[in-house]
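Batch job 17 of 40 flagged for manual review because the log was empty.
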Amino acid sequence: MKTSSERIKQRLRRDRPMATISMRVPEDVIEDLKEVAPKLGFSGYQPLIRAYIGQGLRKDLAKLGKPEVADLEESLRRHGVRDEIISAVIGEAVHRGA
């Protein structure tokens, strides 16, 4: 079993593989995401969706007893890492079971 430190190091790797998914979303929701994304500092609506997913996932993981995820998020935020990046990093890593 990996230590918390090993998990955190893995989650910060930039060369993690990405998976492409397809999901149906109402067109008006996509239009709203496209409008909101640049106002929140995101490069597009897909990074915003990943951020939303990551935020919800981190909350659920914290409830389910994964405190290292919350610790990592807090540390990255203190170091000035944007929420978009935090969400992408943690969401991808946790989804893969890191």
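Reviewer: the log was empty due to a logging misconfiguration, but the result itself is present. The mean pLDDT is 80. Unflagging and moving on to job 18.
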